[in-house]
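User: Sequence recovery, please. Input:
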């Protein structure tokens, strides 16, 4: 990514967080939402490497739509839902709606092929299509990720869980996120992501990291340094003076 494009990306993300998205809410209780249907679909169509059988998934799109309809009608209520219930809801929503967007246009080579025919980096993209409706509010994937999840929850591990349907994304988990297991699931995603040599390569002297750590570098500068985040999950510890660089991002579809 050139410095100019990166500047545009950071500026737009900053604007997204500043303006935000007022999170939709409803009177639903956490028990009114079941992620069981999504769990079944992920187990059926996502392999252990996090790659997706989109051809098969498309045959079950009606079941996915029923799940999305459930999400649409039962937005989290931050006054009555735990933080874990809310975050599991929004991560599942992001991933499920991303899958549905791909299925709407499948077959395609990359999710980046979607969006406006006039391409403006990080503006007229698949992540700006207002195809989501939750709590009566029209939304896009950027609204969910930047206006709600990053803004409200302040947990860098979400970047290990949100999957934008690309090969270089973290692996799509073949189970739904749940409030009960969320902390364990996010840590497990960190381990899977950091130890996948197609996405990150860590040795004692050098770390070649995913561009996610570059694009969202500010999110990883809270309580720990980036090196500490890497060493929390990587099987090999990066030394104090070890160098950090970033790998090219493969935007090809994460299909089996």
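Assistant: Recovered sequence (256 residues):
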């Amino acid at each position: 990514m050139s410095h100019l494009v990166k500047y545009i990306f950071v500026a737009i993300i900053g604007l997204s967080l500043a303006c935000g998205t007022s999170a939709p809410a409803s009177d639903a209780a956490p028990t009114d939402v079941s992620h069981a249907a999504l769990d079944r679909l992920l187990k059926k169509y996502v392999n252990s490497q996090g790659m997706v059988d989109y051809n098969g998934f498309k045959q079950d799109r009606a079941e996915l739509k029923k799940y999305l309809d459930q999400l649409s009608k039962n937005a989290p209520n931050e006054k009555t839902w735990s933080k874990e219930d809310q975050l599991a809801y929004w991560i599942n929503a992001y991933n499920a709606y991303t899958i549905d967007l791909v299925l709407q246009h499948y077959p395609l080579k990359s999710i980046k092929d979607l969006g406006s025919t006039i391409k403006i980096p990080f503006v007229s993209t698949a992540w700006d299509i207002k195809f989501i409706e939750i709590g009566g509010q029209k939304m896009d994937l950027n609204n969910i990720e930047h206006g709600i999840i990053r803004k409200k929850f302040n947990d860098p591990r979400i970047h290990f869980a949100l999957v934008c349907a690309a090969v270089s994304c973290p692996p799509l988990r073949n189970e739904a996120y749940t409030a009960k297991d969320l902390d364990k699931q996010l840590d497990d995603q960190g381990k899977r992501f950091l130890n996948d040599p197609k996405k990150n390569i860590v040795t004692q002297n050098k770390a070649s990291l995913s561009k996610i750590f570059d694009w969202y570098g500010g999110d990883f500068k809270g309580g720990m340094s980036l090196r500490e985040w890497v060493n929390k999950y990587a099987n090999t510890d990066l030394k104090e003076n070890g160098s950090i660089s970033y790998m090219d991002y493969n935007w090809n579809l994460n299909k089996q």
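The beta strands are 132-134, 137-139, 201-202, 206-209, 243-246.
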